[in-house]
Amino acid sequence: LDPDTLNKMVYLHAALCEALRLYAPIPFERKSPIKQDVLPSGHKVDANWKILFSVYALGRMKAVWGEDACEFKPERWISERNGGLKHEPSFKFFVFNSGPRNCLGK
Asked: Any transmembrane segments, and where (predicted)?
């Protein structure tokens, strides 16, 4: 398959994103702030603390993905408006990490 044909395979791309959302290749991620900060939740974190979170759990959170978060639904990645691929923010779809140290394979 040539790249142009692959780019037109929206449902295939959506199915791959959905599989990665539910079954992330790395189930946990660790971050460490370089200076004191406050998280959006209001929790304070000090410099060099180790913050561990579950990418596996994030992919199943109803507050993030809706009531059907545990269901395999590639359609959630397809825009109802134009039928194209919907791009989710990297801080929501964390499979490839986010920020300056994101995945080279992305």
From this structure: none
